[in-house]
Amino acid sequence: MSGRFTEKVVLVSGGTGGLGRAVSIAFRDEGAKVIVTYRRHEELERLKSAMRGDGLPIEGERVDVTDERAVKQLIDATLLRHGKLDALVNTVGGYAGGVKLWESEADVLDQMLSMNLRSGYVLARAAVPSLIKQGRGAIVNVAAKAAIDHPAGAAAYAASKAAAVAMLDSMAAELRGSGVRVNSILPSIIDTEANRSAIPHANFSKWPKPEEIARVILFLCSDEAKVIHGAAVPVYGGE
Question: Could you tell me which CATH number the domain at 9-234 has?
Answer without folding.
Answer: 3.40.50.720
